Amino acid sequence: MSPLNPGVTPSHRRLCRITPRLYLCAELPPGWEAAHDALMEWVAAGITDIVDARSEADDSEFVAQFSPGVRYHQFPTDDDGRQRPDEWFDAGTAVLREIFDETDRVALVHCAMGVNRGPSMAFAALLSIGWDPVVALDAIRGARPVAVVFYAEDAVRWAYRGDRARVAESVAAVHEWFSRNIADAEWIIERIGPTPSEDRT
Question: Which of 18, 114, 140, 183 is such that its CA lies 20 to 30 A from the CA of 107?
């Protein structure tokens, strides 16, 4: 049950459509049956590719067993508040752009809670195909109110590296967006609480 609204799917576990080709969610829930049901929901929504941003867990064998047609990609990183390296964005967005280029593929990006790492990778992917940073952040937060996108500044520095003026302009825009939208970040994370991953192999 959700701590915010008992009897409904917890808000961080809801499948959120950012664009017709890009979704966000939290990790599969603990427990074999719940994880299986969530995976089937993802498949029913048209997900063909899972992009996992976690370093602490790996559901590739579970997905291969119960939905072998879904491609599983993992680009692990810790949610430790430190700057995300360019290589992380390079690797993840390369796969996401490949997915976007094929009209029959749909990506789901997730981390543990779907608050920081997954949304930040999705944000970087949108930047890489030409989205304006504020438009991308609005789209993510509009579809997924629990998203904080903590590594958004790292993503704009990655996306526009080599263009100092654009980096400065985009970082300022991201800071302004955060000042207007993420005052509730701590409240969000406290209400969701820890979601320890479970080995389902």
Answer: 183
User: What pLDDT score does 47 carry?
Assistant: 98
- Asked whether the whole model's pTM tops 0.90, one would answer no
**Helices marked H in the chain — which ranges?**
32-44, 60-66, 86-101, 117-128, 133-143, 152-159, 164-181, 185-192
Per-residue pLDDT reduced to its tens digit, 54-88 = 999 999 999 999 999 999 999 999 999 999 999 99
Residue 143 backbone phi and psi in degrees, to 5 = -85, -30
Q: To the nearest whole number, what is the mean pLDDT of the chain?
A: 89
54: left (phi over 0), alpha (psi -120 to 50) or beta: beta
Taking the C-alpha atoms of 100, 102, 104 and 110 in order, what is their torsion angle to the nearest 10 degrees? -30
* Strand duo 107-110 + 49-54: pairing: parallel
Q: What are the beta bridge partners of residue 25? A: 110
